[in-house]
């Protein structure tokens, strides 16, 4: 029986308040309105940005909410005026929109979009949410809410992908892998024969390592305080491994000694302002480029002006610089063509009702990516 045009009752993991476990609840998902798409979520990754919202962020007003923003699914129905999608299409929800019409979308200099660029407070407002629980609207985190069996997004925030793509794998291209890989390839513009350092070896950092290798870097130093991650980093192309806790001097000095003055490119994939400074100071004078990739909005960052006066460049990267509706299908194709790794990021597969176990694994650093099976 068709569900188009009707309210769908389904399961979702609801975050009722800050710093509390998620609860599996029955929610009601409204039909899509004009310019919207309703999606049956098949699989979703659990990303550190979900943990940031739940445990670390300062926005206590963003609850109740359905988290999740790294998913993949199948179009169930479309709202009036939607021509790009039809029921049955395989899609990836996007936390960054691409309307293709605003001055930002038309510029090759950025992947931002006037009609939907995330910030800590940029959730779909309660009144615009399509998800209700116990008679109360819940926020759709980052406009996506992939911790729900069904969700509704604007069509400018959905990417249609190759029907051959396995959704329980390519869901990870909705955030972490594109974020790290693109930071190396699109933002840093890593050069062949260069030396790189990647700080933080979660999924984003490992994807950055993979991007450095794809760009032709000859030496890639993986930096993390968890040495258990070094074996995995080698799979993605890391050539050297450094645990800052093994040294009694700043990591920037360690890397300078290893690389004759500093690396050509560094990527901070932790979201820690102290590590951001270390990554900058690890770059070579004259031309070193350091990219901030890890998401945080809690503290100011700082460095001595001389670091930049001596020719280093400090820049940031959001979603790896990919224009979302264009870039995600390209990355899916690259995966199907075996040009980028995805399967190797997945360390655990669980069901939606095990989401709190997945959160604990990530908090303890005992996983790279957990993929949750969402819809039955």
Short overview:
The chain is α/β, with parallel strands linked by helices and 376 residues long. It is built from ten helices and 19 strands.
| Overall pLDDT level | 93
Low-pLDDT runs: 119-123
Residues in helices, as a percent range? 10-25%
Judged by helices, strands and strand pairing, the structural class is: alpha/beta
Question: Biggest sheet: strands, sense, closure?
Answer: 7 strands, mixed
The proportion of strand residues reads 15-25%
Radius of gyration: 20 Å
Global outline: globular
The quaternary structure here is: single chain
Number of strands: 19
Would you list the SSEs in sequence order as H and E? Answer: EEEHEEEEEEEEHHEHEHEHEHEHEHEHE
Number of helices: 10
From the N-terminal CA to the C-terminal CA, the straight-line distance is 17 Å
Lay out the secondary structure.
Blueprint: E1 8-15, E2 23-29, E3 36-45, H1 48-56, E4 65-66, E5 71-78, E6 90-93, E7 131-133, E8 136-137, E9 139-140, E10 150-154, E11 158-160, H2 167-170, H3 176-188, E12 195-199, H4 203-214, E13 219-223, H5 230-236, E14 240-242, H6 251-259, E15 265-268, H7 273-281, E16 289-292, H8 305-309, E17 313-316, H9 324-336, E18 346-351, H10 355-363, E19 369-373
Parallel strand pairs: 4-9, 12-13, 12-15, 13-14, 15-16, 16-17, 18-19
Antiparallel strand pairs: 1-2, 1-4, 2-7, 3-5, 3-10, 3-19, 5-6, 6-11, 7-8
Helix pairs in contact: 3-4
């Amino acid at each position: 029986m068709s569900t188009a045009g009707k309210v769908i009752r389904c399961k979702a993991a609801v975050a009722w308040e800050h710093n509390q476990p998620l609860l599996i609840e029955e929610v009601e998902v409204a039909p899509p309105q004009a310019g919207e798409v309703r999606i049956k979520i098949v699989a979703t990754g659990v990303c550190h940005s979900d943990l940031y919202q739940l445990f670390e962020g300062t926005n206590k007003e963003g609850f109740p909410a359905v988290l999740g923003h790294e998913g993949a699914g199948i179009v169930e129905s479309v709202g009036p005026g939607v021509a790009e999608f039809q029921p049955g299409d395989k899609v990836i929800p996007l936390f960054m929109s691409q309307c293709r019409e605003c001055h930002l979308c038309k510029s090759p200099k950025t992947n931002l979009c006037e009609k939907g660029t995330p910030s800590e407070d940029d959730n779909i407002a309660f009144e615009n949410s399509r998800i209700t629980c116990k008679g109360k609207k819940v926020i759709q985190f980052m406009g996506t809410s992939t911790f729900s069996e069904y969700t509704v997004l604007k069509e400018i925030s959905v990417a249609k992908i190759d029907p051959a793509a396995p959704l329980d794998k390519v869901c990870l291209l909705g955030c972490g892998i594109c974020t790290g890989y693109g930071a190396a390839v699109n933002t840093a513009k890593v050069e062949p024969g260069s030396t790189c350092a990647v700080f933080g070896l979660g999924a984003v950092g490992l994807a950055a390592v993979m991007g450095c290798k794809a760009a032709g870097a000859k030496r890639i130093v993986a930096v993390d305080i968890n040495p258990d991650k070094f074996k995995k980093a080698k799979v993605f192309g890391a050539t050297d491994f450094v645990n800052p806790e093994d040294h009694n001097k700043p990591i920037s000095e360690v890397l300078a000694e290893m690389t004759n003055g500093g690396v050509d490119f560094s990527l901070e994939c932790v979201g820690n302002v102290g590590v951001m400074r270390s990554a900058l100071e690890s770059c070579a004078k004259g031309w070193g480029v350091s990219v901030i990739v890890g998401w945080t909005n809690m503290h100011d960052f700082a460095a001595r002006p001389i670091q930049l006066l001596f020719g280093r460049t400090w820049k940031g990267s959001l979603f790896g610089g990919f224009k979302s509706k264009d870039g995600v299908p390209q990355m899916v194709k690259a995966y199907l063509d075996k040009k980028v790794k995805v399967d190797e990021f997945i360390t655990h597969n669980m069901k939606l009702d095990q989401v709190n176990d997945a959160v604990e694994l990530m908090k303890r650093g005992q996983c790279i990516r957990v993929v949750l099976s969402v819809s039955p």
